[in-house]
Every structure is written in structure tokens, then in C-alpha cells.
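Page 37, continued from 36.
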């Protein structure tokens, strides 16, 4: 797993495409480039990913965009993306939005530069926290949080109201990672407005994205107010996490991620994470562990509501696999193969982390055609890779979970489905997210019929991750339900109570 570097580390931060790509001129860019400003005509600073998707469709499998003097190369064709997945020649690049998160997440797992020793240390210490055994231990806590969601949805249904899907999925996934990882309860379902921690987190993510849309030297002037707010947001995130860690140190825990961070020494070197690094990891996991999963669940629910025949098939599977069980066991979630395909298909069309960046470890030639110097990088635009008609067919834009039928998967080229990134720096929380999301979809399908608003048109917001905007669904309790359909209270709360001494404050 270790990323060995035999040469001096590359310089940090932005490396311009002009320096990195000797034959940059051969890579197409949008027409109508404006001197000094670049490719800014017809773009919306709030939707850079969807703009890039539009450009990609016009310009082909590799293209470039320039804004305020910075030029970026994008890759989305299946062959080129597969070439960039070659770990012997390419590695993760920390740039653009990810680098903008360094002030808050520092050398935490997601934002660490490849050469920073804390990446390997934290990876080795924390990876067992995502093993199968660890997932089984999280399962009852995931169920308990899902019980809060269904309680809330039952109340909304009884009051004749539709439900706010992205808002509620965000509450669910934040509570899940906070409880399973850190024994903390933000009390999201008891609040009318987002917890201040969530607002601060959304603030820093939005700010990180905005930094890409203004000329770097002008950012302190153009974003003066936003910069001040961002500093306050970061201070709030830090102080909340510090309180959580202090309380845990005082009270002890029983083996969750935070305990691992605080107590586990590296198996080979005996090294431990520093206090500063623990703070960064906690923030990293709270952010990375919920934003993307809530989007994935929201898109899946959108498509299930639009395709009653797919929902019926998924529901039939849940009934067959879970039968009369009051609550599903860990293995019964893994057996929901079709529900899992629904989720994969939602992540194909809307990979909620819609791109990741790769840099050349040495001078190389991408796809045998585009020379790159050591350190040159490109963004792999997953959202378009997942819609490449050469891979997914002429109906690539349509929602069809059977694309993830095992036979169909085997017949596709490797590296064509990459919602969790690639290589050593791929998502450490993949199994966690998939288990949580499959479990929740199963519970919701078992309990409700999902009714779409016929006037709703899918609109996607971007704040580094993707989320359907304004998606509300009407619910109906299922007319015929299996005997075991459990009320939320049936979930054994006692076995899954959060263990965090500060949670009582519901700060
Ligand atoms: C559907 C849900 C999720 C998606 C789509 C997703 C996607 C990704 C992607 C694309 C990367 C690689 C980024 C890059 O190359 O720059 C990544 C990394 C990461 N993810 Fe996730 N993620 C999800 C859920 C989670 C969860 C639940 C957790 C934690 C519990 C998590 C924690 C992380 C961390 C810590 C990294 C950095 C890993 C490293 O560099 O060593 N993610 N994720």
C-alpha cells in the first residue's frame, strides 16, 4: 500500500498545465476564450462540475479549461481514465478543491500530500476500523439512527407533509458517522435547523469551492467577508472536535474510530497520531463520512420514486431476504443485491464525489498520446466517465440497475466505474457507506411507498459534492406489509446508545 518516493517530493500546491503538459496545445478547449479571464463565457460559478460535463461532451475525452490564468486538464474517456488508474505511473494529486480544504483538514487522510508521513501512519492505524468485524459492530448503531429517520418520516406522513430528502439524508448520515466513529450525538433529528457544526462544515466546503472561481491573488479582497466567516467556521469546527476529544480522553471509550486515533500505535513502528493530527482526522471523517453518502441516498431515492417498477423489484427483494425479521441482521443487508445495484446505478449517474485528481509520478505519456512531465496532473471527471456511451451504451443517461448485474459488470472494461476513486488513496469508507446506504434503502422500501412530485425536475447543487436540490417526496405506508415490519422503537436502542459524555449537551 505504501507510496514509495525515491525522489524529492514534488512542490506543494498548484502546478500549471502549461508547465506540466508540453503539448498542451493539442488538447482542445472551449471556443470563445476571453483574454486574461479564460473560458468564462456561459459558465456558472455555482456549477463547475456540470459546466465541465457540458464542455466534455463538446470537446471529447480529454479537454482543458482556463479561468483567471489557471488552466486545468480534464480526462473522462474510458481508455485515458483507465491509464490514469495505473498506480505505477500515477498517484493522487492534492489540488483544486481538495487543496483548498488544507486549512481545515491539514494532513488528515483525505487532504494529505502523498509524501506526508502522517498519511501512511493514519491509514495503517485506521484501516482496521473499516474491516468486516468493525462494520458488524457499527450495524446496530446504524439501525438505531435509521430508526430516528423512520420515526421522523412517520410523523411527517401523519401530518400530511412531504419529506425533505437531502436534508433528512444529511441528518441521517451525519448522526451515523458521529455515533459509530466518535460516540457522539448531534441530535440532528430533534432540531428544526441544521446543527451549527453542519452549518460550519457546509460553510467551509462552499468556501473551498468558491476559492477556485476567483483569481488567486484577488481572493483576499474579493472574498474578504467570506474569508472571515470561513475562519470562524474553522474555529468552531476545531473547538467542537477538541471538546469531543477531551471528553473521550477523560472518560475512555470502547474501541471506535476515535479510540483507535487516540490509543492505537502503528503495528510496525509503534508511532501514534499526534493531537493535532487526531483533530484533523476527526473533522475529515465527519465531513467525508456523511456528505457523499447523503447525496448517494438522495439520488437513489429520487430514481426509486421515478421508477415504481424498479422500486417494486427492490422491495420484493427486501421482503424475500428479510422476511419476518423485526430488524435486519448484518448479513441480511449484504444479501440485498438488487438494492445495492440501485445504489451503484445512482452513483454511476451522480457520483457524489464527481471527480478526483491524478498526477504523474514520473515523465510519462498519457494514453500513448499526451506527454506529461513529472507532477503534471489532470482531473478524472467521473461523472462523464460513467456516462461514456462507448462503455455504457447509447442509453447511458438512463437509470437501469441491471447494468450492475454480475454478468454485465464482468463484461465491462476495468476502471470504468470509479465513484470511490482509485488506488492507494481510494475511499477508506467505501464499505461503510455501502452498508449504511443499502441498509437504509432497505428499511425505507420496506416501510413506505415513495411518491414523486410530478412537477419536480432534477436540479443538482454543487459544494464539492453533489446533491439533488429541493427534492421532496410524499410517502405512503405500505398497504401490504410483511409481518416483521418493525416500528422504529423495536430497534434495540440500549445496545447502541452513544457513549460520548458531551452528547448530552446536544451542542
Ligand atoms: C457514497 C459515499 C462516498 C463516496 C462517493 C466517496 C468517495 C470518495 C472518493 C472519490 C475518494 C478519493 C478522493 C481522491 O482521490 O481525491 C474518497 C476518499 C476518502 N473517503 Fe470517501 N466516499 C464516500 C463515503 C465515505 C465514508 C462513509 C467515509 C468515512 C467513514 C469516507 C472517508 C474517506 C476518506 C478518509 C478518504 C481519503 C482516503 C485516503 O486518501 O487515504 N468516505 N472518498
Amino acid at each position: 500500500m505504501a507510496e514509495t518516493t525515491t525522489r524529492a517530493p514534488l512542490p506543494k500546491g498548484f502546478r500549471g498545465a502549461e508547465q506540466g503538459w508540453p503539448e498542451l496545445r493539442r488538447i482542445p478547449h472551449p471556443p470563445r476564450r476571453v483574454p486574461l479571464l479564460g473560458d468564462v463565457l456561459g459558465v456558472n460559478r455555482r456549477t463547475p462540475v456540470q459546466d465541465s460535463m457540458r464542455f466534455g461532451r463538446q470537446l471529447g475525452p480529454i479537454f482543458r479549461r482556463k479561468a483567471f490564468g489557471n488552466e486545468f486538464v480534464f480526462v473522462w474517456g474510458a481508455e485515458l481514465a483507465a491509464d490514469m488508474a495505473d498506480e505505477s505511473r500515477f498517484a493522487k494529486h492534492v489540488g483544486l478543491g481538495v487543496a483548498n480544504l488544507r486549512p481545515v483538514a491539514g494532513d488528515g487522510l483525505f487532504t494529505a500530500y502523498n509524501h506526508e508521513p502522517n498519511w501512511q501512519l493514519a491509514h495503517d492505524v485506521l484501516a482496521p476500523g473499516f474491516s468486516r468485524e468493525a462494520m458488524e459492530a457499527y450495524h446496530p448503531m446504524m439501525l438505531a439512527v435509521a430508526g430516528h429517520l423512520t420515526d421522523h418520516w412517520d410523523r411527517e406522513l401523519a401530518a400530511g407533509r412531504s419529506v425533505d430528502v437531502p436534508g433528512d439524508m444529511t441528518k441521517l448520515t451525519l448522526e451515523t458517522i458521529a455515533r459509530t466513529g466518535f460516540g457522539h450525538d448531534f441530535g440532528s433529528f430533534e432540531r428544526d435547523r441544521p446543527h451549527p457544526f453542519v452549518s460550519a462544515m457546509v460553510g467551509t466546503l462552499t468556501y473551498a469551492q468558491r476559492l477556485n472561481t476567483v483569481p488567486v491573488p484577488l481572493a483576499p479582497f474579493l472574498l474578504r467577508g467570506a474569508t472571515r466567516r470561513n475562519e470562524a467556521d474553522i474555529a468552531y469546527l476545531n473547538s467542537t472536535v477538541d471538546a469531543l476529544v477531551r471528553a473521550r480522553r477523560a472518560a475512555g471509550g470502547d474501541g471506535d474510530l476515535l479510540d483507535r486515533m487516540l490509543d492505537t500505535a502503528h503495528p510496525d513502528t509503534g508511532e501514534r497520531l499526534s493531537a493535532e493530527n487526531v483533530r484533523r482526522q476527526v473533522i475529515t471523517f465527519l465531513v467525508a463520512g456523511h456528505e457523499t453518502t447523503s447525496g448517494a441516498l438522495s439520488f437513489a431515492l429520487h430514481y426509486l420514486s421515478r421508477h415504481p417498477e424498479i422500486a417494486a423489484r427492490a422491495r420484493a427483494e427486501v421482503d424475500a431476504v428479510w422476511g419476518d425479521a423485526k430488524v435486519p441482521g448484518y448479513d441480511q443487508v449484504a444479501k440485498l443485491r438488487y438494492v445495492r445495484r440501485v445504489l451503484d446505478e445512482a452513483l454511476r449517474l451522480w457520483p457524489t464525489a464527481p471527480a478526483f485528481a491524478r498526477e504523474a509520478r514520473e515523465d510519462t505519456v498519457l494514453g500513448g498520446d499526451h506527454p506529461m512531465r513529472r507532477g503534471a496532473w489532470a482531473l478524472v471527471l467521473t461523472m462523464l466517465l460513467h456516462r461514456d456511451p462507448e462503455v455504457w451504451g447509447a442509453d447511458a443517461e438512463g437509470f437501469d440497475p441491471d447494468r450492475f448485474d454480475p454478468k454485465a459488470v464482468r463484461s465491462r472494461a476495468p476502471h470504468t466505474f470509479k465513484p470511490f476513486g482509485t488506488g492507494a488513496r481510494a475511499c477508506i469508507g467505501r464499505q461503510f457507506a455501502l452498508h449504511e446506504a443499502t441498509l437504509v434503502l432497505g428499511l425505507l422500501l420496506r416501510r413506505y411507498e415513495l411518491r414523486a412530485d410530478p412537477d419536480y425536475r432534477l436540479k443538482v447543487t454543487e459544494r464539492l459534492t453533489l446533491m439533488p436540490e429541493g427534492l421532496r417526496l410524499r410517502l405512503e405506508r405500505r398497504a401490504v406489509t410483511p409481518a416483521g415490519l418493525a416500528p422504529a422503537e423495536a430497534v434495540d436502542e440500549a445496545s447502541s446508545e452513544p457513549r460520548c459524555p458531551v452528547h448530552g449537551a446536544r451542542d
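The domain at 22-505 is CATH 1.10.630.10 (Cytochrome p450). Flag for discussion at group meeting. The two ends are 39 Å apart (CA to CA).
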